[in-house]
């Protein structure tokens, strides 16, 4: 069986979004394709961040290289970068290290059965990443336009009064996570044990100096 790694990412650093659906769908694909999932990397970070500022993605790519992983599984190409240049750089890293890439949304594999990029792979990757970049810019434009109109009509931005959690409130809400962190359990494992996002656990660890 080929060794596979899953990389899943959502943009929201809050608990409103999670990577569960991506992981479940990719796990099903791996089982169907008879791939052995060696590790799962989950990240909550904005899609606008540069790849060098994505610690989990960096860890994932290095893990694939160091452990001779056969294929990296992602739900869609935009998970791998904020723009076409960064995506292509990541793809080059994978090709240089003979690591295949499977994109579930398009059901696309980077390498053929001989471990070589297909003739259409570079065009396909460039097209998909450019389309994803354009879509992000369109979303950003619509959000900014809506915000400006809201302010123009008298709306106010920011949290409502009383909506900010106090330290005691957080201590009660995240008491299980705090207890696990105090025992020296890693952020990723605490996130899995408590059902919270890794970004949330990282924030709690920092706020409580754990």
TrEMBL record:
Residues 3-154 form the Resolvase/invertase-type recombinase catalytic domain. One of its GO terms (molecular function) is DNA strand exchange activity. Pfam families: Resolvase (PF00239). PANTHER family: DNA-INVERTASE FROM LAMBDOID PROPHAGE (PTHR30461), SITE-SPECIFIC RECOMBINASE RESOLVASE FAMILY (PTHR30461:SF19). This is DNA resolvase. It comes from Butyricimonas faecalis.
């Amino acid at each position: 069986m080929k060794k596979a790694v899953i990389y899943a990412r959502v943009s929201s650093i809050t608990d409103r979004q999670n990577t569960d659906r991506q992981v479940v769908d990719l796990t099903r694909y791996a089982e169907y394709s008879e791939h052995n999932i060696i590790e799962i990397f989950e990240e909550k970070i904005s899609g606008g961040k540069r790849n060098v500022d994505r610690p989990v993605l960096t860890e994932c790519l290095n893990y694939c290289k160091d452990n001779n992983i056969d294929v990296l599984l992602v739900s869609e190409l935009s998970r791998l970068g904020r723009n076409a240049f960064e995506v292509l750089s990541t793809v080059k890293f994978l090709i240089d290290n003979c690591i295949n890439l499977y994109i579930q949304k398009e059901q696309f594999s980077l390498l053929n059965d001989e471990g070589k990029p297909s003739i259409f792979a570079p065009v396909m990757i460039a097209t998909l990443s450019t389309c994803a970049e354009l879509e992000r810019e369109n979303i950003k434009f619509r959000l900014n336009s809506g915000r400006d109109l809201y302010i123009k009509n008298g709306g106010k931005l920011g949290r409502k009064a009383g909506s900010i959690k106090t330290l005691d409130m957080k201590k009660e809400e995240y008491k299980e996570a705090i207890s696990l962190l105090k025992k020296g359990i890693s952020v990723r494992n605490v996130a899995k044990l408590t059902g919270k996002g890794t970004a949330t656990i990282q924030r709690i660890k920092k706020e409580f100096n754990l």
